[in-house]
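Entry:
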Amino acid sequence: MRLTRAHVDLPLTPGARITLPETAAAHLLRVLRLREGDACVLFNGDGHDYDARIVAAGKRGGEAQVVDRRAVDNESPLRITLVQGVARGEKMDLILQKATELGIDAVVPVQSDRSEVKLDGERAQKRLAHWTSVVVAACEQSGRARVPAVAAAAPLSEALQALPPGGRRLLLDPFADANTQSLGEPADRRIVLAVGPEGGWSARDRSVLETAGFSGIRLGPRVLRTETAGLAAIAALQARFGDLG
């Protein structure tokens, strides 16, 4: 059975009748082909699913009636912020999609010495809007009712300065001595995980990260690509300290 969940960036309350935003209308009415009277589920990131029913469906959009509200309790007890070196096109989309499914709390894209993708101005804003849509779509598919925050891409040092204090700060390093099994449980259940871009972290990047309190961990004897490394680390951390069994 196909999922009929859709994200709407609107206040939702039982009994309200809303005009579906363009993206939600396209997903529900054109992709899933719902018609008047069909049930669906809406969410706006507040931690609830809202049972609703399509009350108007047309070529230019539609409306839904909110019927009920249900709390959704599927967020990980482990709050992971992924500091991800910006990767090319589909690789970055894959990272964001799968990291969201694995339960991350936030994503901080960074530009570093070896980044192959350079973003500024209008292009950066378009990328941020696209990345946010990828994360929202992953929430729709995975049943999450809270949407991970996605920051605008920024230089590594600037992004690290903007991080909130606290949390265990980990840097993926294939030559490190520590691994996920040797880590103690994070005191405040918060982990900040730094993953380099396609070319990895430069020596200067590593120095910046270490100065900001990051320590290295390795995942195993093989060097993983950027689109594999972060996801493998998130899964390992969720299995050890979170909710993956």
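The chain has two domains: 5-71, 79-241.
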